[in-house]
Amino acid sequence: MYLSELALKNFRNYEDVELSFSPKINVLIGENAQGKTNLLEAIYVLAMTRSHRTSSERELLTFKKENATIRGTIERKLGKLKLELILSKKGKKAKVNHLEQARLSQYVGQMNVILFAPEDLALVKGAPAVRRRFIDMEFGQIDPHYLHNLSQYRTILKQRNKYLKQLQSKKAVDLVLLGVLSDQLAAFGAEIIARRLKFLDKLEKYAQEIQNNITQSKENLSFEYEASISEVSEKSVDELYGVLRQSFADNSKKEIFQGTTLYGPHRDDVRFLINMRNVQTYGSQGQQRTTALSVKLAEIELMKEETGEYPILLLDDVLSELDGDRQTHLLKTIQDKVQTFLTTPSLSEITRQLIDDPKIFRIAQGKVELQKSN
């Protein structure tokens, strides 16, 4: 899978631009605040219908414009796919081959992307919410059922938390309704946890191999799912539903007192272990960065296994955050395998030596100019 053409209209600082890309490596060069990251963001938004940088649609629109359009042509094994996303202050419209999609969840997954930015190094040492977001964004791309269950779960969670606050303030007294919401939440929560465990198991196998290669077999990487309920591994969906439902029943007074839902996948976390020691707590900065790199590269292989095609890789100024050995491993891993978009202020000598025949774009003030690679 690769993005052959991209057209932007009124997106960030791009008023009107049309580009064609290499199926291999595309390098976006320019000074800070010129639009390199905005271009990567547009590709991400085209795939995911949402930005990784902001939750405000208004920020994605060129100043004083009412809407923005992102269009792309995707080359897949089964042929070309035309994608279009229209952003406005009123919402979003997504089209596949000129046909508007009834739900955004039907659209997501047509184009698979993996973003690796400096902040992704916080995947290991950051807060649990960072890892949950990582899981939900990546697994949601490859499994529409996961995305559907997650959407339903979030809707019911919001309703349940609102009702718990009403019970807390004595504005509501109907515990039967709380039971209904708990039952619905447990059903979707069980599906989410089961699918997380399945995908994390596969991701772990790929990440272990990559970590071994980077560290010359000195470090064995493993994952541990940390659930807010009791032990969840090797449990069926029905068993997970029962455990969640029981957790809600046993702790209803506690949840009413705090006015929020204390159990479920929205409270879960993943621990990364190197040689059975928690790398978040005990790992060096180098180990934490290697782990983050291994997990991100493992995503590429997981998506290939699940979708039959390699995803598109977006590297936003991440090379500057990696030392020579990790840069080398990253670039050798993706060469001739994954279409890659790489932003950088300038190409270092090590990068030039490792990238074969890149297509280089120079960006300045929202203008994009193709330049010769030599």
Automatic annotation (TrEMBL):
It holds the Pfam family SMC_N. The keyword Cytoplasm applies. Keywords: ATP-binding, Cytoplasm, DNA damage, DNA repair, DNA replication, DNA-binding, Nucleotide-binding, SOS response. GO terms for cellular component: cytoplasm. One of its GO terms (biological process) is DNA replication. SUPFAM superfamilies: P-loop containing nucleoside triphosphate hydrolases. Belongs to the RecF family. This is DNA replication and repair protein RecF. It comes from Liquorilactobacillus uvarum DSM 19971.
